[in-house]
Amino acid sequence: MIKRFSGLIFLLGLTVAAFGQSTSMNLQECLQYAEIHNLTLQSGNLDVDVAEIQLKQAKARQYPTVSAGLSQSLGYSHGSEALSLGGNYNLNAGIEIFNGLTIRNSIKQSELRESMAELQVTEARDQIRVEIIRTYLTILMNQEMLEHQRNVLNTSREQVVQGELRLRAGRILESDYKMLQAQYLSDSMSIENTLITITNEYLTLHDLLNMDYDQVITVVVPDSSRLAQSMQLPDLQTVIQQALDYLPELKVKKKAVEIAEYDVKIAKGAYYPSISASAGIGTGYNAAYGSDVHGLTSGLYKGLGENVGLNVNIPIYRQSEVRNNVKIKNIQVQQAEISLEDAEGDVISEITEHHLTVQKAYNDYVLSELQQEAYYLNFLTYSQKFQHGTITAVELLQQQTNYLSILSNFMQNKYNFLLQKKILEVYTGQAVTL
Question: What is the architecture of the domain spanning 2-64+106-271+320-426?
Answer without folding.
Answer: Up-down Bundle (1.20)
